[in-house]
Amino acid sequence: MSHGTRGSQDHPIENAHLAVRKAAKASFVGNFVEWFDYATYGYLAAVIAKVFFPPGDDVAALLYTFGVFALSFLVRPIGGLFWGNWGDKYGRRWALSWSILIMSGSTFLIAFLPGYGAIGLWAPGLLLVLRLVQGFSASGEYAGASAFMTEYAPKGKRGLYTSVVPASTATGLLAGAVFIFFLNAILSDAQLESWGWRIPFLLAGPLGWIGRYIRLHLEDSPVYRELAEGADHEPVEAPVRYILHHHKKQIMVGLGVTCLNAVAFYLLLSYMPTYLSQEIGLEADMALLSSSIALAAYILMIFMMGHISDTFGRKRMLITACLLFIVFAVPSYWLLSIGTFWTALFVQLFLCALLTMNDGTLPTFLSELFPTRVRYTGFALSFNTANALFGGTAPFVATWLISTSGSPIAPGWYLAFVAVLALGAMLTIHETAFEPLED
């Protein structure tokens, strides 16, 4: 302990940079594991539908698969309250180290589930149970990592540094897409449905242990430690009750703004390969390839958008993203319906640029909305509630809208509608970018 104190006194700038880098690694790895899993589930949706649900009706099986995906999000608000409560009371590091362990463990166990042909309806039932556990534990990841990085970031660079969190989600999706692309290339359909689909879920085990190790060897954020070690600090005994009583407006604004992020993220980065292959008729390999290129561009753009939000403000960035989605969502889906690779790639790159305006700004904005003593809880409650209502259901709603209307453009109208809701929420709040974090 004394050595660490002496080092920080002798080299304060170097020590601070090292701490920020370690915090970035800790924030990155958990979200990477979470979204690698979601990518695997989303990109293998057609295979999972055949493995876990009765044969005969491919559309119904796909809807059931996305239904399980959506149901796993219903526990996210509960999980968000749990992890937020513990993270605000006992520290960000504690909550993040346990959430990644439970999340990766439940994902790992999916690899060992027997299919419908072996145990009938028990197969989708057990899949749902593990997805519920995964959703519960994952609900602490994005919120905790975002609050963690916002509190660690240097003054005037919160947007840039916190953008590592959405970058990690996209990197997980990209790794999942590339992994599934190679599985499709080297395995036959029969091999993929028999045992190949299990491989990416197995990887969650070792990745989760690595993430837990990194987090256990990291101190809590300076902002949280300063608050917790203050002479007059008294922890909030019931963070959930406190935040619902004192910060109702911030919760509603956070929920409203996040609904666009939730729908756009899942439609554009998770569901898109399934949409292009199942609804538009693009070859599955080409759909995965275009999505992988778009994800790589998203990762590069996300840091730029975080930096721009530091310069021009969160409110301006988020409102601009809402307006652009309102105008261009439907035309973009019309272009996607043409069904060519190059059209799909162009549209995905364009929509990813719009999404990064929102996604590169949102985690910092939500962190800045709430004071340190209840930041984790406020972020987790608003973010996970929006994702439960709009994010997890997005692939199901999109598939249902297309099936009901007969129009492949239907998801574009849904995306534009949600952008209107988010715009209404953003117009009611003040700018947060240029103010110090509230203790």
UniProtKB/TrEMBL annotation:
A Pfam family per the record: MFS_1
UniProtKB keywords: Cell membrane, Membrane, Symport, Transmembrane, Transmembrane helix, Transport
UniProt-listed InterPro entries: H+-coupled_symporters, MFS, MFS_dom, MFS_trans_sf
Top-level taxon: Bacteria
UniProt keyword Hydrolase present: no
Subcellular location: Cell membrane
Membrane-related topology note: Multi-pass membrane protein
Transmembrane segments annotated in the record for this chain: 35-53, 59-83, 95-113, 119-138, 159-183, 195-214, 251-274, 286-305, 317-335, 341-358, 379-403, 409-429
Annotated SUPFAM superfamilies: MFS general substrate transporter (SSF103473)
Keyword Cell membrane (UniProt): yes
Domain Major facilitator superfamily (MFS) profile span(s) in chain numbering: 23-434
PANTHER family on file: ALPHA-KETOGLUTARATE PERMEASE (PTHR43528:SF1)
Protein name listed in UniProt: MFS transporter
